[in-house]
Automatic annotation (TrEMBL):
InterPro entries documented for this protein: AAA+_ATPase (IPR003593), ABC_transporter-like_ATP-bd (IPR003439), ABC_transporter-like_CS (IPR017871), ABC_transpr_MalK-like (IPR015855), ABC_transpr_MalK/UgpC-like (IPR047641), Mo/tungstate-bd_C_term_dom (IPR008995), NA-bd_OB-fold (IPR012340), P-loop_NTPase (IPR027417)
Start and end residues of each ABC transporter domain: 4-240
UniProt KW Protein transport keyword: no
Short name of any one Pfam family annotated for the protein: TOBE_2
GO CC annotations, alphabetized: ATP-binding cassette (ABC) transporter complex, substrate-binding subunit-containing; maltose transport complex
Annotated EC: 3.6.3.-
GO terms for MF: ABC-type maltose transporter activity; ATP binding; ATP hydrolysis activity
Protein name from the UniProt record: Trehalose import ATP-binding protein SugC
Keywords from the UniProt entry: ATP-binding, Hydrolase, Nucleotide-binding, Transport
Keyword Oxidoreductase recorded: no
Family that this chain belongs to: Belongs to the ABC transporter superfamily.
CDD domains noted in UniProt: ABC_MalK_N
Length: 372
C-alpha cells in the first residue's frame, strides 16, 4: 500500500467552469479517508482525477513515490468500486473476481488461491457460480469489493458504493467494509482507502479522517470527533451532525468582560470559558449550538432564549423540539425520559445553551472564532 498526495490539484472544464480549486490533501498509508459534501461539491470529480478517469488541469497527484498525472488508470496501482457495481453481466462471480488477474497473466493456481481467499473474507464462496443478475444488491456489492481486493492495489477508491442499497443493508455493509479494513491492517496488509459519500453517517462511522468539501474547495480535514467538536467554519458545523447545528445570526457585545449574544430583541450573557476562547471583536456573528447542547427550560429562565414551540418530533429515544426565537429557528434534542409530555405547539419555552459548547462564527468569513 502507499500514501496518496494531492498538491494544488485543479479541474477546469472546456467551458471555463472551474470544478476543483487547487486542493491539497494527504492520505496516509493504510488510512481510511472519506470525502464528504453535498451534491456538486466535486468529491466524485476529485476521486475520478485520482483514478485517472478525469484529467487534471493543474497540480500534481502522487501515489507512493510516483507522480501519476500522465498515467492511464491501469498503470496507477488503484482499484475502484463504483456505485453501480460495474460487474460483467455475462461472467459468473468466479470469473468476475479473477478476470483482472487473468489479464495480468497471473498463473492459474495463484488466481484460484486469490479467488478462494477473497471469497472467504467476504463470505461469498456460495456465490461463485452465479451470474450478477442472480445476486442481491448486497451480494453484488461484495463481489465488486472482492474484485477490487483481489488486485492488491496501492489505493482503493470507492465512489458512493452503498447509495443503491436500502438503509438496513447500508448499515450492514458499512460494518463489513470497515471490519475488512481493520482486518487487513491487523494482518500487516494495510489498505489505503479514499471513500466518497454524501452521507455524513457513512463518513462519521467509517473514516479515520474526513475531508469535508464544498464547491470544489476543502473546508476541513480531521478525525470525526474533531469535526464534530471543533468545526473550522460554519459550513462544516452545519453539515456534520444530526440534527444539524443551530446557526443563528447574532450580535456580540460584552458585559463586564463576558460575551453577550443578542438574537432579535433577546440577549443572553454567556460564561463558562467562552470569553477566554473568543477571538472576535464585538459585532455581527453567527451563534452555533448543537441541538443536543440546548436545554429546554421554563420561559424567562436566566441565560436562555425565549421561544415558541413550532413542532415536536417524537423519535422514540428522544424528541426534537423546534422553536421560533424572534424569527430565528432553533432545534433542541431532549431525551424522551426527560421530556415534559405536557408541552405542545404554541407553548412558550426557554432554550438555554451550554456555554462550554457554544461556537461563534465570523458573519463574513464563516470562520470559527471561538476555537481556543
Amino acid at each position: 500500500m502507499a500514501q496518496l498526495q494531492l498538491r494544488s490539484v485543479e479541474k477546469t472544464y472546456g467551458n471555463g467552469f472551474k470544478a476543483v480549486h487547487g486542493i491539497n490533501l494527504d492520505v496516509k498509508e493504510g488510512e481510511f479517508m472519506v470525502l464528504v459534501g453535498p451534491s456538486g461539491c466535486a468529491k466524485s470529480t476529485t476521486l475520478r482525477m485520482i483514478a485517472g478517469l478525469e484529467t487534471i488541469t493543474g497540480g500534481e497527484i502522487r501515489i507512493g513515490d510516483q507522480v501519476v498525472n500522465d498515467l492511464v488508470p491501469g498503470k496507477r496501482g488503484i482499484a475502484m468500486v463504483f456505485q453501480n457495481y460495474a460487474l460483467y453481466p455475462h461472467m459468473k462471480v468466479r470469473r468476475n473476481l479473477s478476470f483482472g488477474l487473468k489479464l495480468k497473466r497471473i498463473p492459474k493456481d495463484k488466481i484460484e488461491e486469490a479467488t478462494q481467499e477473497v471469497s472467504s473474507i467476504l463470505e461469498i464462496e456460495q456465490l461463485l457460480e452465479r451470474l450478477p443478475k442472480q445476486l442481491s444488491g448486497g451480494q453484488a456489492q461484495r463481489v465488486a469489493l472482492g474484485r477490487a481486493l483481489i488486485k492488491h492495489p496501492e489505493v482503493f477508491l470507492f465512489d458512493e458504493p452503498l447509495s443503491n442499497l436500502d438503509a438496513k443493508l447500508r448499515a450492514s455493509m458499512r460494518v463489513r467494509i470497515t471490519d475488512l479494513h481493520k482486518r487487513l491492517r491487523n494482518e500487516g496488509r494495510p489498505a489505503t482507502v479514499v471513500y466518497v459519500t454524501h452521507d455524513q453517517v457513512e463518513a462519521m462511522t467509517m473514516g479515520d479522517r474526513i475531508c469535508v468539501m464544498k464547491d470544489g474547495h476543502i473546508m476541513q480535514v480531521d478525525d470525526p470527533a474533531t469535526l464534530y467538536e471543533r468545526p473550522a467554519n460554519d459550513f462544516v458545523a452545519g453539515f456534520i451532525g444530526m440534527p444539524e447545528m443551530n446557526l443563528v445570526p447574532c450580535a456580540l457585545s460584552r458585559n463586564g468582560g463576558l460575551p453577550v449574544l443578542s438574537a432579535g430583541s433577546q440577549q443572553i450573557t454567556v460564561g463558562d470559558g467562552l470569553a477566554d476562547r473568543l477571538k472576535a471583536e464585538d459585532g455581527k456573528v453567527t451563534l452555533g449550538i448543537r441541538p443536543q447542547h440546548l436545554s429546554v427550560v421554563p420561559a424567562g429562565t436566566d441565560g436562555a432564549f425565549n421561544g415558541t414551540i413550532t413542532n415536536l418530533e417524537f423519535m422514540g429515544h428522544e424528541v426534537n423540539l423546534h422553536a421560533d426565537v424572534d424569527g430565528a429557528a432553533f432545534v433542541a434534542v431532549v431525551p424522551s425520559e426527560d421530556f415534559d409530555n405536557n408541552l405542545k405547539r404554541g407553548d412558550k419555552v426557554g432554550l438555554r445553551p451550554d456555554g462550554r459548547r457554544i461556537h461563534i462564527f465570523d458573519a463574513a468569513s464563516g470562520a470559527n472564532i471561538s476555537l481556543s
